[in-house]
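Just scan this pair:

***
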Amino acid sequence: MIISIILPPRHSIKKASFIEAFLFLNSLANQKQGEFIMKKIILLLLITFSFSQQEFMHQDITVSINRNTQSIDINDYITLVSGYYKVEPIFFTLNQTTINDWSLQFSAIVDSVRSEFGVQYQCENGNMDCWTQLYDDSTINNQNSIITCGWPDDSWLNDTIEFDLVLRVSGIFDTSQLNINDDSNIVHGYSLEKPYPNPFNPTTTISFSIPSYEFVSIKVYDLNGRLVSTLLEENLNPGRHNLTWNGKDYSSGQYFVKMKSENYSKTEAVTLVK
């Protein structure tokens, strides 16, 4: 299983705001179970208190999911410290599936409160029109950092589902463990650097490195996981390479640049501003 970590620029948010609290509570408006709502409110208060005196950040991690994946331990990807963390799915790319209509839930339990997020994939019109959806978020802490993958009992046992899921983890991090300013994204000679400039209009440069002669693909996806541009699909010599993506034909918004080779996979977020 290929695992990669995204370290986006640090956010300057200092405290959880009442606006964020309002949006969180508003997302519960359609919930019918009062007890569930109250537990979510309690978690919100705990998260807000956890953030109140410290700077919090966003970090994105990429996890490769397949039928053998039973759980995700966020502590395997990021060093969590005290406090509570919000985990939300922001993007995924489908690598392979033998099922054209499926939904998969991921859940976490903190202080006896269960929270969930999900991934949905569906094809219509004879599999010609396919779309994806990501929804909700979960709450974890450093003692309870496991997110369980809720596969159906045995109904998909002989089917194939493989995708790369990007999760955004928001909370307090030990900045001494992040190595934000060094070359920690280089893994055995592989690297995908942060596109520059970012945000950009209309072009940004994508730099990457490989240690040997091999096939490399670099593609750009939108927030819904739809492929919008294939920048590279070919065999390359070892070394550092540069690409330019011109976004003049695309609308403003966030996009994801994904590099993939036989032994390496990484995704970087970019924002097009017009």
